[in-house]
Amino acid sequence: MSDKLTAAAAGTISIGGDLTVNRMGFGAMRVTGDGIWGPPKDPQRAKEALRTAVELGVNFIDTADSYGPDVSEELIAEALYPYPDDLVIATKGGLLRPGPGRWDPDGRPEHLRKVCEGSLRRLKLDQIPLYQFHRPDPKVPLAESIGALVELRAEGKIRHIGISNVSEAQVLQAQELTPIVSVQNRYNLHDRSSEAMVDLCDQEGIVFLPWAPIQDSDKLVPVRTAAERHDVSTRQIALAWLLNRSAQILPIPGSGSAEHVAQNVAAASLQLTNDEANAILNLAA
Questions:
Q1: pLDDT 10s digits, 115-157
Q2: Residue 173 contacts by C-beta under 8 Å, 6 or more apart in sequence?
Q3: Which of 34, 67, 89, 224 matches a 20 to 30 Å C-alpha distance to 133?
């Protein structure tokens, strides 16, 4: 397959100043079962999706201990270990999974230590390149949760710290405690509530990882128009727009299908015109 249809076509981005990855990643939430609970119906199909992503130049995979729980991390290791030298695996901790579709925050330092060490075992890593606090816990001061990650980094168990599902004020508070290299918030063509966060990440040189990056993209007229013009899917236009929106955005579309993974990665080679990009951007105006 030509370079134009690999993740390399999106260019690269630096994480923490010492990790460089292609700017089209893979989110490994959807390789689990329904409700992000339990194993997938076809584990081999899920592992094929993971292998296809790496074969197509994806060298950044995002996961979490709560995906399954544990299932996503276990499948990543089963499919890809021993890992390519350039592969960066990011995972997260801070959410409990009492059942399908349920996500309860737990930011206690002892919990974060326990799940981080569990992720290390499941992923077969000596050090997690990027460990992200999955969601602030209203019952635990943010400084205590971030402090636990600082301790884990000092012990060599994690390399860089990121945060997820946060406000701008929480990012700035966390930055007072330690360098924050990534923010992962919900952001897509329909949900622009993190627009100011994208701008903050631009200013601070922080990687922005949008989750649910392609949700409902087919419902927007400018997106459908651009898709028809380029003869691609609306999902691909949504990803191309995210790449265009900010150089700090690292899209992490996920799928349990190798075919869909290839389609997502192909979006790295799409070039939107200024008129197309502005028409989509102005939907939020």
A1: 999 999 999 999 999 999 999 999 999 999 999 999 999 999 9
A2: 142, 143
A3: 34
Q: Token pair 């994480």 is at which residue?
A: 15
CATH architecture of 3-284: Alpha-Beta Barrel (3.20)
Query: Domain boundaries in the chain?
Result: 3-284
Tell me how far apart the alpha carbons of residues 145 and 246 are, in angstroms, rounded to a whole number. Answer: 29
Flag whether pLDDT at 1 surpasses 70.
no
DSSP string, 110-135: HHHHHHHHHHHHHHT-SSEEEEEE-S
Instruction: Give residues with Cβ within 8 angstroms of 36, minimum separation 6.
Output: 29, 30, 66, 67, 68, 97, 100, 101
Question: What percentage of the chain has pLDDT greater than the value 70?
Answer: 98
pTM of the model: 0.96
Q: Which residue has the tokens 């729980």?
A: 69
Q: For residue 4, what pLDDT band results from cuts at 50, 70 and 90?
A: low
DSSP for 51-109? HHHHHTT--EEE--TTTBTTHHHHHHHHHHPSPPTT-EEEEEE-EE-SSTT--EE---H
Has 187 been annotated as catalytic? no
**Residue 94: C-alpha distances to residues 2, 107, 110, 114, 161 (Å):** 40, 5, 11, 10, 13
| Given the residues 67, 81, 83, 187, the one annotated as active site | 67
